[in-house]
Amino acid sequence: MKTKRQYSPRYLAVNLLHRVATAGSYANIALDQLIAQTALTGRDTALLTNLVYGVIQRQLTLDFYLQPFIKKPNRLQDWVKQDLWVAVYQMVYLTKIPDRAIFYEAAEIAKAKNRGAAGFVTAVLHQIQRQGLPDLNKIKSPLQRLSVSASVPQWLVEKLIDQLGQVKTSAILKTINQPPAASLRVNTAVTSVEKVQTQLAALDLPTKVSALSSVGLVRQGGFLAGTSLFKEGAYTLQDESSMLVASSMRLQPHHQVLDVCAAPGGKTTHIAALLSKAAGGHVTAFDLYPHKIKLLQQNARRLQVADLISAHVGDARHLDSVVPDQHFDRVLVDAPCSGLGLMRRKPEIKYARQPADLMNLQQLQLEIINQAALKVKPGGILTYSTCTIVNEENQAVIAQFLQQHPEFTPLPVQTDHPLKVATTPYLKLYPDDYGTDGFFICNLKRKSR
Ligand SMILES: C[S@@+](CC[C@H](N)C(=O)[O-])C[C@H]1O[C@@H](n2cnc3c(N)ncnc32)[C@H](O)[C@@H]1O
């Protein structure tokens, strides 16, 4: 039987951080599962969420703060480090929580796991209280200071400065550690934005309309996947930037669409909602992984658009063997990418990526887009999108593609509302522009014969 302590948000946070670090789970998915399984109050859910995201977001900063107090970091057990991270995070960023409460909880968590470690945790925290934390402003190298303060690896800060300049990089780094907003796409195949907004408000979940997408609603925090509206398919959880993809594709109800990197189907189901079965519209969706195709099919059923979608396992690098002799009005390549635009929502990504990944991914992206191009009807449109913010995976892919494919020309990216960022020849959204994920969209029209 679980004790009261094991349901405390801090205990749950330490456990979850341990799982993310050791089993490679994504924090947002693991957190949603945990919240669904445990009957926490709204306040405890908010604290748990804050602790988990806050600690992962600020891991490099927290390591810097703890460094002078831990003599043998290599001998520190992972969960002891995570317990200390959670404690120091509260001391620095959640200033309303008194130190004595933080120390007591940190020691109790240590005791519950291994009695011997409780003394060590308490000693470290008391030493921090006596001596104070080291000062970030005293880091001599400006690059290292920016990296540690924003908790972003130095190679990535350097790359962003190189590609975007100091001012834009600082603006991005300032916003990526803010709590991510929750956003949902209303499923216009079955309901309307106004209706869902009213129904959510009645559940004490007020939302605001998205500034980017006419089918998006946003709110700061809250567990939106638990409502019966979600289960019935009235909406799905999706970042506002992702909602721009289907809207940009100039879809018509009768279109035949190929979605080659489709799972778990966020964009496939959005595309399907814009097609009409009666008019003959259809999406053929592929993904490399069978378990992801199952997820896509589940989502399609929940969102009541399964009859417009056929989903199969298939490799987008070999489309001729999966869709021989077929050509489509619209082809979407929502490419596998580094995910560096998701630093706020999936903060663990920034530590996992290595510089060499970007060029390896570029090769894969080029292979896929080159194959996808062969499946576009004359006069049709090929859409390339990613959730990353580095040139290698975005404009460099498009530039190389266009060199080899003069039959394609970029179109302005159509959006529901006028945006403050350029939409031609492609749309690059950074996390500081609208508080969304970082995203890239390019629409390429194939010449009519
Ligand atoms: C960015 S995600 C797609 C997200 C999806 N479009 C959505 O909106 O929900 C990229 C997808 O590409 C898939 N993928 C990776 N390599 C692939 C390949 N060679 N062929 C097909 N799919 C692939 C991954 O499994 C992953 O699901």
From TrEMBL:
GO process terms (BP): regulation of DNA-templated transcription
Active site: C387
Stored Gene3D superfamilies: NusB-like, Sun protein, domain 3, Vaccinia Virus protein VP39
Pfam family for this entry, one: NusB
Segments forming domain SAM-dependent MTase RsmB/NOP-type: 172-447
Assigned EC number: 2.1.1.176
Keywords: Cytoplasm, Methyltransferase, RNA-binding, rRNA processing, S-adenosyl-L-methionine, Transferase
Chain residues that bind S-adenosyl-L-methionine: C261, A262, A263, P264, G265, G266, K267, D287, D315, D334
GO cellular component: cytoplasm
Physiological role: Specifically methylates the cytosine at position 967 (m5C967) of 16S rRNA.
NCBIfam families referenced in this protein's UniProt entry, alphabetically: PRK14902.1, rsmB
Protein name, as recorded: 16S rRNA (cytosine(967)-C(5))-methyltransferase
Organism: Loigolactobacillus rennini DSM 20253
